Amino acid sequence: MMxxxxxxxxxxxxxxxxxxxxxxxxxxxxxxxxxxxxxxxxREYYEGVGFILxxxxxxxxxxxxxxxxxxxxKLSRFCxxxxxxxxxxxxxxxxxxxxxxxxxxILERISCDLELKEKAPKLYSxxxxxxxxxxxxxxxxxxMGFIEVENEVDGSFRVTAAFHYLEEMVNCLxxxxxxxxxxx
Length: 184
Hints:
By secondary structure, this protein is α+β, with helices and mostly antiparallel strands. It is built from eight helices and six strands, in the order αβααββαβαααββα.
């Protein structure tokens, strides 16, 4: 059985991006609906080519067993995303699915918020200016499908449902108060 738009969906998800229910792109919302209506068939289809179709709170993505990536590399990438999430929540605690922002609003907040000013350079050590850092952050969020352009004229972006993925990753962490080291 040939599934509708399976090639187009594969091209998005195989790049590590997400398909979200509240995407600003009409095609992505259509792909979301197709998958949601026939999730088991899409899962079985992509499993045949080595990808696991995962679903979250309003989003879909691929996962697969990565033998080539070391645990250290995975933890490093995970920590990078935790730092970015922390920065965005510091920028605005309402930064979540459906939130709309502009690059200029983030830059404006960095200029007057000492905490953001201290956190920004830690996001991308190779970037010198706040504008370069925010450009890179927006680029990374956009590539992953966590944000999409809301309005090209005013330069606004909307946070997609895929952002729940980051929040859920962090919520999975159990931090024991007062515990500095793992027991032997």
